Amino acid sequence: MRKLYPLALATMTLLCPVFETSGDEGMYLFNDLPVDQLKSKYDFEPSQAWADALRLSSVRFNSGGSGSFISSDGLVLTNHHVASDTLHKLSSEDRNLIDDGYLAKSLDQELKAPDLELNQLVSIEDVTERVNAAVAKDASVADAATQRRAVIAEIEKESTDKTGLRSDVVTLFGGAQYHLYRYKKYTDVRLVWAPETAAAFFGGDADNFEYPRYNLDATIMRVYEDGKPAKLEHFLRWSDSGVSEGDLVFVSGNPGRTQRIFTVEALKFLRDSRLPYVLDYLRRKEIMLQQFGLEGAEATRRARDELFGVQNGRKAYTGMLAGLQDPSTIATKQARETKLRAAAESDPELSGTESAFAEIAAVQAEKKNMLGQTVTFRSRLFDLALTSVLRAAEDEKPNGERLREFTESGRESLVQDLLSTAPIYRDLERVKLADELARFVESRGGDNEWVAVVLDGKGPRERAAELIEGTKLDDISVRKTYLDGTLDDIKRSDDALIDLARKLEPEYRRIRTINEELDERERQAYAKITAAVSKLQGASGYPDATFTLRLAYGQVKGYMQDGERIEPATDFAGAFEHEAQHQGQTDFDLPPSWNQAKDKLDLSTQLNFVCTADIIGGNSGSPVVNRKGELVGLIFDGNIQSLTSDYLYTDQQARAVSVSGVGILEALRNIYGADQLANSIGK
Amino acid sequence: MRKLYPLALATMTLLCPVFETSGDEGMYLFNDLPVDQLKSKYDFEPSQAWADALRLSSVRFNSGGSGSFISSDGLVLTNHHVASDTLHKLSSEDRNLIDDGYLAKSLDQELKAPDLELNQLVSIEDVTERVNAAVAKDASVADAATQRRAVIAEIEKESTDKTGLRSDVVTLFGGAQYHLYRYKKYTDVRLVWAPETAAAFFGGDADNFEYPRYNLDATIMRVYEDGKPAKLEHFLRWSDSGVSEGDLVFVSGNPGRTQRIFTVEALKFLRDSRLPYVLDYLRRKEIMLQQFGLEGAEATRRARDELFGVQNGRKAYTGMLAGLQDPSTIATKQARETKLRAAAESDPELSGTESAFAEIAAVQAEKKNMLGQTVTFRSRLFDLALTSVLRAAEDEKPNGERLREFTESGRESLVQDLLSTAPIYRDLERVKLADELARFVESRGGDNEWVAVVLDGKGPRERAAELIEGTKLDDISVRKTYLDGTLDDIKRSDDALIDLARKLEPEYRRIRTINEELDERERQAYAKITAAVSKLQGASGYPDATFTLRLAYGQVKGYMQDGERIEPATDFAGAFEHEAQHQGQTDFDLPPSWNQAKDKLDLSTQLNFVCTADIIGGNSGSPVVNRKGELVGLIFDGNIQSLTSDYLYTDQQARAVSVSGVGILEALRNIYGADQLANSIGK
């Protein structure tokens, strides 16, 4: 699944152009579309109106995915696995939306998501000059970071004050460009329809990242304004036919993070240190959540959404690491890099290039030392405590000096998160925190001074139980008190987790400062490398992914695998055959609704298809449109061969996997009895 | 489960006395029983005949557990989870002994285990003086290790030649003593009866290491000689009643490894480095085997026995680490150590003690560097290749210079292992080897010279497929050719795995030499510490566990947990109640045979009980006997509070868990229709 796993949203967002592109590679900025390429390769010239309509019909989910507006009365299409965070939060012991799915028969049955925020990209403005002008030429790394942060906060606040829109300055091309993105926010988002997980995630972990697939990984929500369905000017019309091999298609979504510009040394750091570290982390969480689930059906339900996310991340990172461990990958990257460095060396204007490569190598060594240096415990209750403590302290500072997430332009999103009505399960929190405390001891060593602070003389399990017992942060009104209060209120608190967060605050800030300085050093180095690439290869290209809106394009196209031709599309008949072939295997039973509807279904209707468009985690839920801008599909996965696309795009076998638009309509009408909903789509 | 996880059988077998004992602590040597303690604490004086009979009725399983003779015609009792390795090897797609259990209705239905070896301890001889005399006083660490190895090989060979018995010199008390153990070997071992896993492992991973329990974790085999049931002089009679609180009981079995003598620095190495490393390893294997099982029922079956072992190890090590992470554990150990060191410092004869502590600290730092330095890939086919390559090379050397496992006294066991008829699954081997190759790249870094040798320019998965494709070592006749062949035959081989093992041999030997020298340094240091303990505290005590026969004793005794009294014994009625309470949870369904027999059963019959005896992994399958030497139980687990007993015995809450002897008989008669078998037990 191509949802963004939270780990990918590290503090660092390094964003750079690629050295060389190939095939249908590219995640293009909407203000710098590959017009010439599309013209020459596909004889297609997107009009401004075509591009604007697609951009304004696209949305970003703050939970880590993408989506699109699909009707004039606010309907939003995304993946089931993007919505599953919300489905989980709306579920309880007595209402299992994950297992059973949901269909609102009328507006009043639509269920409000506790903390979703959808962003529609309204405008993009280049603010590079203003940002650069605010950073002194001879500033130290620390000063440069501070000055840049200050001017970015200023630009964002000005924009928010003026337009009322969410305003984010996005760092592109490794710091060579800064663009101001303004978003219209939708925070009243309601669930309209979701299928059963058995249909959405048919084939489970075994089929994840595989192809051919037969998944109805789709969910429909609706955005509201002032308590009523939003009236939308821009939304996608739907194509009433399936796709054919060779069709040109476009993907408009928010790829989370790529590392295409990474130097060989940076890739080796990923290969030898960071990815193994992340995988150990994910496997640990996977086992921990599985173990928790052994306690019974309700425990299984409580842990499941997080378990799915972890398993998905583990499989994705395993594929990424496997690609890097293949010696040919580094060899390919090394050849390109050697060529670039040789060219730069003979150009006096690019004399800083070599030192930039050296700087990146030096930073990797320091990043290795920082692995596991964290005091964020990935327990929701501790996160709330730490955020509350930091918020109170940051609010004492001028806007421009605050940590990024506490500046004024982000306040509304912060409040929404802190006051979310999503349920918090104390039993699960206790187990998660105990595991994190144990991990903290492991990563620091038991004799570390901060371990003494954290454990307070007890074992991790006992201490976690005490901390969870001693907090009231699962009560929204208590969180609101802290949110409305001052630093003094925080200081006076006797909440056990607030107390711990307070004690850990200096260490948290120390680590964060080091990481931000390392990021700044990389940013400056990659900016130099980017300049060299631009000058030598005249790259317009595209910047590495930043979880902001991009356009990718490609063809619907099958491929060869183990000597066998894989057709580009599957249909409903294939789903039933796949079920029969895997009888008795976990997650290979289609839901009863499908088997009951089998006779009514047009089994030849397209269900899933693949294309060559360049996508990555975060693109989940992206609409796939044809030349006319009509929706033909819904991105939900990449195949296993695409897992290396974080750092290397290929179109040999790598494919993006979509649910077919006609498949969604067929299922709504003939499986889920949702004719009314189906009829309102695209209108 | 208290079976020995293979990881515990590291090359190092450091074996030392404890500083202080408490309660019923102790795993005593049969030639140094705690006669005075038993007399004073329990008014019990074991006669020599009592002890000899118990020793000669006890057996060790080479698969990592213990057992006992229970009839004159060769019946052997052990745990289902000790036998499961054999059950797995005797199973196929069409015969699932793990799921379905087994009952031989007649001798000709008894199924021969492919590679089991049972050892009955016939005699113990102290050879300390001869071993020490062979090591020069001023020898370097490397020379001391070599000289010691040579004399041990010599002693063992002499003994084997003279007696025909398996002869092992065992290092005790950290090298302060060396004893020659002579074993009668049984290599024709056949399966008689096993229950379904649903009964043996009722409650699954969730209940593992928990109490109260309701598990029929028992299996009965039979030893044969010359193709006929062995006639046994010594076997255990069975008590015809259950146990009562306060009963004095004895456990005769083979605890695998304890670390009670470990210095604080050695424990910190476990806490901060080794156990986290092992747990990352186990979680990785757990996920890998689970993933393999997703491919279907047959894949699940193929991976299951190993998966069980890994999960069991993961849970045990998690408990061990949790104990060490509790600051009070190290504090307790530190207090004892400080006391000892202070006393030693004021004794001129013990002037070497401080330097011994320093030496152990220094060795820990080096061991940390060696973590993950391995070229043993834990794939059966690669193991066979490496063993074949080493065997050929070692056989060119005189017996005394060979690696331990290739000396003449161990030859028969080596041959049995190499020529085992246990099935080898190429699909599972491929996946396991791919994971190990990936792990090798991770632990060495992708640029390491040995990585280039191992991968040969391919990614781990591709390379593993090529290696498994290119080997014929799953064919026993091929393995026999290598076994009968010379080093030249190995050199001429074009088998892909033999070729890889040949290339890696120098690196394997380099690593092994370093590890053995580190062991030798620790051995010498612990011997000094042991001398100090003996002089200052007059300890007779017991040596750390060595997977050799020991006697432990204790009382049948309940305990308090979370303010609640836990009764010492459970019964069949409790099993059915436990099933009802956990309806719908994985592994909480008793098998159909139990539910069908419910009306016939005497539900008040004891099923499991706990006692305070000091056990550890390897004790699984040990008989529990009463004062009269009659079998009353069968050790199969320790409770979760006992998981720290590797390094710290307590009897507050820690308990050994047994299947009740009367429970086994009740099940045989009234669930499994095995009256004839039941009637022959104890006779």
Automatic annotation (TrEMBL), chains A, B:
Family: Belongs to the peptidase S46 family.
Pfam families recorded: Peptidase_S46
Listed InterPro entries: Pep_S46, Peptidase_S1_PA, Peptidase_S1_PA_chymotrypsin
PANTHER family: PERIPLASMIC PEPTIDASE SUBFAMILY S1B
Keyword annotations: Aminopeptidase, Hydrolase, Protease, Serine protease, Signal
Entry EC number(s): 3.4.14.-
Organism lineage: Bacteria, Pseudomonadati, Planctomycetota, Planctomycetia, Pirellulales
Function statement: Catalyzes the removal of dipeptides from the N-terminus of oligopeptides.
Name used for this protein in its record: Dipeptidyl-peptidase
